[in-house]
What we know:
Blueprint: E1 14-26, E2 29-40, E3 61-69
Antiparallel strand pairs: 1-2, 2-3
Amino acid sequence: FSPVAPNGGGNVLGVEGNAKVVYDLGAFMSIEGHAAYLSQGDFFDAPSVNGDSATRPTNPWIAFLCFRWLIF
Length: 72
């Protein structure tokens, strides 16, 4: 939540969700899948927040795979 609401927008910035799936291949070795998604709130309805554009930005997301292996 934002303490200040811009003209034409609200106080809600958005809600973010994250997920992680891990598969252990052995001792100190794993493959991980990560994903995140942000649902933007009514704060981004204000043209002044969007660079004086009338359209809202798209909701950002990311997904990636990671191979972790600890050697010492």
